[in-house]
Amino acid sequence: MNERTITVLREIGIDVADQKPGRLTREQLEQADRVVSLGCPLPPEVAAAAEGKIEQWPMPDTTGKPVEVVREVRELIKARVQQLIGELDAADKQTGAR
């Protein structure tokens, strides 16, 4: 996790300073209803396990860009997550889940 990402997430109350990215397991992918990729290519075995569940959310590359650009991407992701939550809530209401 780079310092600019840590900084912009901390600004909204998310502390990831001690977090380390990990690999998804096949079991996690099989249990997921949806898999979101932020424009990163997925290894073939991951793509195969998540077939039909993958949503691509392409985001601008922030490598070497100023912190303001990272903030903009944070807000793009936040908006997409809020949209996804709304979709999931609507689907739950239709099926009577929760």
Description:
- The chain is mainly α and 98 residues long.
- It has two domains: 38 residues, no CATH class; 39 residues.
- Helices cover 50% and strands 6% of the residues.
- The protein contains four helices and two strands, in the order ααβαβα.
- The chain has a two-stranded parallel sheet with strand order 1-2.
- α1 crosses α4.
- The radius of gyration is 16 Å and the shape is globular.
- It starts with a helix and ends with a helix.
- The mean pLDDT is 89.
**Count of separate DSSP helical elements:** 4
Q: Structural class of the helices, strands and pairings?
A: mainly alpha
End-to-end distance, in Å?
34 Å
Radius of gyration over alpha carbons? 16 Å
Largest sheet: 2 strands, parallel
Summarize, please.
The protein is mainly alpha-helical. The protein has 4 helices and 2 strands; from the N terminus they run H-H-E-H-E-H.
How is this fold's topology laid out?
Blueprint: H1 3-10, H2 26-31, E1 35-37, H3 44-49, E2 54-56, H4 67-95
Parallel strand pairs: 1-2
Helix pairs in contact: 1-4
Descriptive terms for the model:
two-stranded parallel sheet; mainly alpha; 2 domains; 98 residues
